[in-house]
Design goal:
24% strand, 31 strands, 747 residues, 17 helices, alpha+beta
């Protein structure tokens, strides 16, 4: 049984083996550098066990068996010739498990499924990012022992993972033996892809180095500092790949153990990582000091992300838990890797960086932790040389970013799937993310040194990719964000975003005095002026050419549901208007491209009914659309689905890792939806707030270095500023006013 406890922490109160895989995901602890799944210290079973470091990637043999059982899958979705040759793929490496800590009471080793669990409670406090598990275990012979496990990934030092274990005999004086070590027998994708290079025990300290063996050869090193109570070191422990030090406690009433693990990889430093680890081991502080530093750093980071909902405890708590998971998904300190679709909570999706990053995930950090957002964009800049190579290989100019980006920036899409190769909207998503970053931060240095170059190279690609029909420029043969419809012309989301990027880049060239070849600049102006933007006379936006001519129902053929492709039915989607996820509605919600909103309601009403919601990214988009159209019960439902996507296991795959882009959308549904935040071209902040069913809502965000707090209560909106920067504000279409310290108005 799991859910919220009385303190609004996410908790489990009854141990159930069947829940282990899903809860391993939900109980992940991390700090953006590492993510450690909620497996148990005493045993890490496959499908449950997992630790990941951002950008620590190697190659695996990926076994996949999709099949074509209807016309749509045969002609439009799978390339069966390429399926024949597909074998190897990049993947995040499941790191060696440093949690390992076995406890033997008398002659019985503790496992939850042995003996009897008398009491069980584990929880994550999203306000401290600390995981706690407390239980009472009966060894089957009436001997009861209380065990408490506490752990966290430090936000004060991202390379440290800290554990504290307490063992308290309740009705016996049996000897207690413990083993603290590392489980090295870890598989990635069901395969052993790592090799141990060094394993040293010095007293109770452990030094361990290993590397991935297949493609990139990245190396990692652990230094483990054990702090044991009074007792006897029994020596080295080695059992089926689990290696460590064994310790026997002297007779006492209770025992406390501390285990601090320092983790470094050769992706982090040019220095020798073994020497770095030896040096760091000698300076590790005690657990209590590390915990205080961690909580202080985490609270400072998370304060901007924490939204407070009054009058709806369920939404309030699960939104906070969703934001916790978002906070631990992105690197705070470097651009080694971007923000991946499952954060650092599981192997699935291979730690690839998708378009979700710039559109669904990065805005969360842009508004709450701009430096983290900047690191995500700098990862893209590091991939720019390969993006240029990608374009050349396809016969285009400029830069063509990979739809699935990994270590090098080459395309890592599963080659047998047709649709991702046409999802070239990634080359407007990234420029949009850059423009959005500048819009909210005013970071001219970044734009001049990095941002404008990336946008320019993407626009060179679009110049070579568009086609001219004599009157208008078109973008043909693409897949939009709705992956059910490949091979379409003039996808609305793609065309409108490309137009926006051209327009903003031309304006930024003047604003930033950025020089571009005059002939190219003139070509850009021509495309910007003549790019086709689909819209009917009645204000409806066709998702792509011919969309409204398709059937409003879905014909089914074949028996497979193909859930691995997030299809709810074995349908002939190429004949149907049924879509996987929002495309047109993104233009009114997640992206701010200045689209006329006078027909938002009609488009929302139509596309909501055409969407089968087979992507988790649907829920936050629908939440924003519903509240902005005053559908308050629909808003609550969509917001709840957003923040409980994995808690309720809506798609049945939560064991694979959280849906990181969806969870980030909880915060955005409040900022973009309830408060209706946008930025006008002249830099004026615009708010179009909607009074909801909640008693009160409070959220924070940064705008050009100024901290702003938005609060709505008793029908009154209050905007408070902390900082000296100038902020102009327009509320509900009224007159723009300078915000001094605070401003309140009735809604």
């Amino acid at each position: 049984m799991y859910g919220l406890d009385k303190n609004k922490n996410f908790s489990e109160t009854i141990y159930d083996i069947a829940d282990e895989p899903v809860l391993a995901t939900l109980f992940t602890t991390g700090n953006g550098y590492m993510g450690v799944r909620g497996s148990f210290e005493e045993f890490g079973s496959q499908r449950v066990q997992g630790a990941f470091v951002r950008g620590f990637i190697d190659e695996i043999i990926e076994v996949t068996e999709p099949f074509t059982d209807n016309e749509y899958m045969k002609k439009y979705y799978l390339d069966e010739n390429k399926l024949k040759t597909f074998e190897k793929q990049d993947s995040c490496v499941n790191m060696h498990d440093f949690l390992a800590f076995k406890i033997t009471v008398g002659e019985k080793t503790f496992f939850p499924w042995e003996g009897r669990v008398v009491k069980w409670h584990r929880f994550i406090d999203p306000m401290t990012a600390v995981y706690t598990r407390t239980l009472i275990w009966d060894d089957g012979e009436g001997n009861k022992t209380e065990l408490t496990f506490e752990r966290f990934a430090s936000f004060a030092d991202e390379h440290l993972y800290c554990q504290k274990i307490k063992v308290r005999p309740l009705n016996h004086s049996l000897p207690v033996k413990v083993m603290s070590g590392i489980d090295t027998s870890i598989k990635t994708g069901g395969q052993f892809i790592t090799k141990t290079d060094l394993l040293e025990l010095e007293g109770t300290d452990i030094l361990h180095r290993y590397h991935a063996v297949n493609k990139y050869g990245f190396a990692a090193c652990y230094g483990i500092k054990n702090a044991f109570p009074t007792g006897t070191v029994l020596g080295k422990y080695d059992d089926n790949g689990t290696v460590g030090v064994e310790f026997l406690c002297d007779s006492a009433k209770s025992y406390t153990f501390e285990k601090i693990t320092y983790i470094v990889t050769d992706r982090d430093t040019d220095k020798d990582i073994t020497a770095c680890t030896r040096e760091r081991l000698s300076t590790v502080l005690a657990y209590a000091d590390l915990k205080r530093a961690h909580i202080s750093a985490y609270k400072a980071y998370f304060a901007m992300m924490d939204v407070k909902i009054e009058g709806d405890d369920e939404i309030d708590a699960y939104l906070r838990f969703a934001s916790y998971h978002t906070a631990i998904s992105a690197s705070m300190n470097d651009s080694v890797h971007g923000i991946s679709a499952k954060g650092l909570t599981g192997e699935r999706y291979n730690q690839f960086v998708w378009w979700d990053c710039e559109i669904h995930q990065m805005p969360f950090f842009l508004l709450t932790a701009p430096e983290t957002a900047k690191h995500a964009l700098m990862y893209r800049y590091r991939m720019l040389p390969q993006a240029k190579k990608n374009a050349r290989e396809k016969g285009y100019d400029g830069a063509m970013f990979a739809f699935c980006s990994s270590v090098d920036g080459d395309e890592r899409v599963w080659q047998y799937a047709r649709h991702p190769f046409m999802q070239i909207h990634i080359n407007s998503d990234i420029p949009y993310g850059i423009i959005n970053y500048y819009r909210y931060t005013g970071d001219r240095e970044f734009m001049v040194n990095y941002g404008m170059e990336m946008i320019l190279e993407c626009l060179k690609f679009w110049v070579s990719r568009v086609s001219f029909n004599g009157e208008k420029y078109e973008i043909r043969e693409v897949t939009g964000t709705d992956e059910h419809h490949p091979y379409v012309d003039n996808d609305a989301y793609t065309n409108y975003c490309v137009k926006f990027v051209f327009d903003r880049f031309l304006a930024l060239c003047n604003e930033l005095s950025y020089e571009v070849d005059s002939a190219l600049l003139e070509k850009m102006r021509d495309i910007s002026a003549k790019l086709y933007l689909p819209m009917c006379e009645n204000g409806m936006i066709p998702q792509f050419d011919g969309y409204f001519n398709l059937s409003r129902s879905l014909e089914e053929q074949g028996k497979g549901t193909l859930k691995q492709f997030q299809m709810k039915k074995s349908g002939l989607y190429h004949k149907s208007q049924i879509i996987k996820q929002p495309d047109v509605i993104l233009l009114y919600t997640m992206v701010d491209v200045g689209i006329d909103r006078s027909h938002f309601a009609e488009n929302w009403d139509y596309y909501e009914n055409m969407c089968e919601v087979s992507s988790s990214l649907t829920f936050p988009v629908h939440a924003i659309a519903s509240v902005q159209n005053r559908q308050l019960l629909s808003f609550r439902k969509n917001l709840l689905n957003t923040v409980k996507m994995d808690v309720d296991d809506i798609h049945g795959v939560a064991w694979q890792g959280v849906h990181s882009g969806c969870l980030a959308g909880g915060y955005l549904a409040v900022i973009y939806g309830i408060f209706g935040l946008s930025v006008e071209e002249d830099g004026v902040l615009s708010l179009n707030p909607v009074r909801t069913l909640f008693d009160g809502v409070t959220a924070h965000f940064f705008y050009k270095g100024v901290k702003l707090t938005l609060s709505m209560k008793n029908g009154e909106l209050t905007v408070t500023k902390k900082g000296s920067g100038n902020v102009k504000l327009r509320i509900a279409g009224g007159e723009a006013v300078a915000l001094k310290k605070s401003l309140s108005c009735k809604m």
